[in-house]
Amino acid sequence: MGVFITFEGPEGSGKSTQARLLYERLQAIGYPVILTREPGGTRISELIRRIVVDLRHTEMAPTTETLLFSAARAQLVSELVRPYLNTGGIVLCDRYADSTFAYQGYGLGRDLDELQAITTVATGGLMPDLTLYLDLPVEDGLRRKQVAKERSEQSAPGTTFSTPPEWNRLDARDLAYHQRVAAGFAELIRQDPDRWRSFSADQPLAELAEQIAHEVAPLLKRVTRLGVYQ
Ligand code: TYD
Fold first, then answer.
1. Sheet containing strand 196-200, strands side by side
2. Top mutation candidate among 38, 75, 115, 133 for ligand 1, by most atoms within 8 Å of CB
3. Domain 3-222: homologous superfamily in CATH
4. Which of 24, 49, 140, 157 gives 39 a disulfide partner, CB atoms 3.0 to 4.6 angstroms apart?
């Protein structure tokens, strides 16, 4: 069994950037590693993502939303995450089941025990070995995301950003919702402190990347590097 590491945080916390930096770092030193995201990461899960983030889908019922995130997760776990972990590799995932507890549970008020049952079905009980939380005041994160969105809208045709920021149906919810989500993450961390590491997202990229690499290092002992005989 390899190592399963997830990234969580509020909107605009930069977790996708940090996930990529960690991926590149591990790959450069010869670790077998893949980077994926939720919702998404497989052909089917990316199709589900399109449905769930679509700004036009204002009528989506909370139960539908919860089951769609869970369906996307079930496919990702079965098609990609478990098989890769079984080869002994490292899986980095940008969001995972904790987001369902924070967003649909604490944010939308869905029953947490019910979410636990749905999540266990979707994942077969697969939990991350480590979850990296990028902490940022909710207002700052939403502002960062808005600014990025406006910048991408203004850009000349043909200009590409490495990961075009999307302003999606879930970002568009009100501030109180995002504050409940952040409080939910704080509660999840409180309940399982051994699995979580929390970082301030309000610091230079490279510094944060160093802190993250430092926390990940002990887990790497379990993984055999490619081409390195131990
Ligand atoms: P993501 O692509 O991580 O967006 P962001 O860059 O804003 O962090 O996730 C898409 C949205 O889906 C995000 O608003 C969080 C939300 N989400 C849930 O509500 N529940 C879930 O289970 C997951 C995985 C994501």
1. 33-37, 90-94, 3-8, 130-135, 196-200
2. 38
3. P-loop containing nucleotide triphosphate hydrolases (3.40.50.300)
4. 49
